[in-house]
Design brief:
By secondary structure, this protein is an alpha+beta fold. It contains four helices and nine strands. The strands form three sheets. Strands 6-2-4-3-8 form a five-stranded antiparallel beta sheet, with helices on one face. Strands 1-7 form a two-stranded antiparallel sheet. The termini are far apart. The relative contact order is 0.20.
């Protein structure tokens, strides 16, 4: 709870509320202790099921907006691309309930375990692709549920498709 609350504007207040049993939602800053990959719920819920057989990190469901957020190690150079996804890092904020909250519109589907364990990016990427294949095989591929893929600025191909709200470096210029 402490490392999660440390990302709040007022960590002491956040931690105190959560320790006294409230499920109050607090805005937490991404980029210092963790980043968050937000994907459509249709993909995120199946991905969380796949990750459950491993040692999953925290995952948060927003059932009102139909998104799942996976908490990852901070990596501001990482770029996750796909339709309907967002990657929150330094400068981004996410609303989170108390770590023990597993009900309501905003709830943990895999709560933080208190040790600071996060979702490994490579395992998350593989689970997302497996989930997408399963969804496509059983239901077809909904246009709002494309599997994201991850690149870094140092290895990103020049023509990588990116979501419009994810900042990215301009394509490399060919050498003359």
């Amino acid at each position: 709870m402490e490392w999660l609350a440390a990302a709040a504007r007022e960590p002491g207040l956040c931690k105190n509320e959560w320790q006294h049993g409230t499920t109050g939602v607090h805005l937490l800053a991404a980029g210092r202790y963790w980043d968050v990959l937000i994907v459509p719920a249709c993909l995120g819920l199946r991905t969380a099921d796949i990750l459950a057989s491993l040692e999953p990190g925290p995952a948060l469901l927003d059932s009102r907006r139909q998104y799942v957020g996976f908490f990852l190690p901070p990596d501001p150079a990482s770029i996750w691309a796909g339709h309907g996804i967002r990657y929150l890092t330094t400068g981004g904020w996410i609303a989170t309930p108390a770590p023990h909250c597993r009900w309501g519109d905003l709830r943990w589907i895999c709560p933080p375990d208190g040790s600071g364990t996060l979702n490994p990016p490579a395992a998350l990427e593989l689970a997302l692709h497996d989930a997408m294949r399963e969804l496509a095989r059983s239901h077809g591929t909904p246009h709002h549920c494309d599997a994201p893929h991850r690149t870094t600025e140092t290895t990103a191909p020049a023509a990588t498709t990116r979501a419009p709200d994810i900042p990215h470096a301009p394509p490399a210029q060919p050498h003359a």
